[in-house]
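HOLO CASE FILE
Compound: nicotinamide-adenine-dinucleotide
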Amino acid sequence: MKTTERDDGDPQNLFENVKKRLCSCSPDLRITPNVEAILKMPVRELHVSLPIRMDDGSIQVFQGFRVQYNDARGPMKGGVRYHPDQTIDTIRGLASIMTWKCALHNLPLGGAKGGIVCNPKKMSKLELERLTREYIQRIYHIIGPDRDTPAPDVYTDAQTMAWMMDEYSKISQKTTFGVTTGKPVALGGSEGRTDATAMGGWYIVREAAREIPLPLPTATAAIQGFGNVGSNAALIGSEQFGCRIVAVSDSTGGVMNPAGLDVRALLAHKQKTGSVREFPGSGPISNRDLLRLPVDILIPAALENVITATNVEAVKAKIVAEFANGPIDSEADSILHKKKILVIPDILCNGGGVIASYFEMVQNYNLDHWEKEEVYRRIEKKMMEAYRAVVELSSPNKVPMRQAAYVIAVARVVEAMRLRGWL
Ligand code: NAD
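Model generated. Tokens follow.
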């Protein structure tokens, strides 16, 4: 298990990459080395062992984490990921990203992330439920609506959040909807949360495309990842923004059709077969080749570090929109900037998910329920505010959008720390 990986020189280490992005803001914000040192470390992390009885009667011990990065601006917030290749530095990197994302979108929240090293594809539903409940029992004392609220991430979903909420509620002896977000709508979840990340991402792509200019109804897009974010990105991109989705992939491989994929039919195919492969009317494409397609918009919506120094030269898209967290490593980032390919950074592009989660928290606090249209309207407003702030800083100075986004976010967190008297 690669849980202690801390290779500072590894360009694929997500935590190190995010730290580099933070350091690049220091001169602009005149951040002193001492303050930078605070920003570069999580305030708390919990490592837990989770012994689970498997369906065959054996006991297996899983490793789990919760990393609480910074709560200067409000309670911690961040997803929980179940993945076999998880490392503590991936979770630290994702918790750090959450901190800057919440600040950029001006949410009264800090940043956190959690994870369990496991392979959900090889576990039964009952095993996953036992694992999830054990995880909550072990991290119970550091989470809660005013402390830290988990949400779905890779290989966790609304059902996982329902189990977590239920376990927390049983321990605390009161139904506590607000302890998780991304729950089923029938159990305190918010309308529009499932596709909020993808919807929010497209609002930003729409604005960026206008600037180029690139009319979306004639644009082509390729999407890596066909889970919650990727499949909704394909659906919303084709049906609401008129884009031609020419290729998509999942962990098993990809499919392409230069004339455009029928995304609804593809979703039905994936639900039936478990994979996008062999979708009738499409040809195969590897995850590697999908990233090299001469499309207008490339959307990484799976895992981190998929565009690196080794493949960045082959990227031909006009816009790379980071619907996933951390898909471009820091070396590739500067090469894309030199190639004049517009990168829309994760903390801006995929903020729709945490914005909808924040709205779910607000509804839970008030035992309220908003219409879907209301949720989308509010997401769009928040996404546009962040986009305009980033563009106002990046365009005149010709700095990458990521640099501008980090400057805004870090300045807000530092201000909150100063006002609290931490500095
Ligand atoms: P998910 O588990 O629903 O889907 C993940 C997808 O990635 C699946 O289709 C899987 O097959 C695919 N995948 C896994 N390994 C792959 C590989 N090696 N190559 C290609 N595809 C691969 O997860 P998700 O919630 O859609 O999250 C995707 C990304 O979006 C992650 O980076 C996550 O942190 C980020 N994100 C998610 C949300 C959210 O609301 N769920 C919000 C913001 C950011």
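CASE NOTES: The chain is about 45% helix and 15% strand. Residues 42-175 form a domain with the Rossmann fold fold (CATH 3.40.50.10860).
CLOSED: yes
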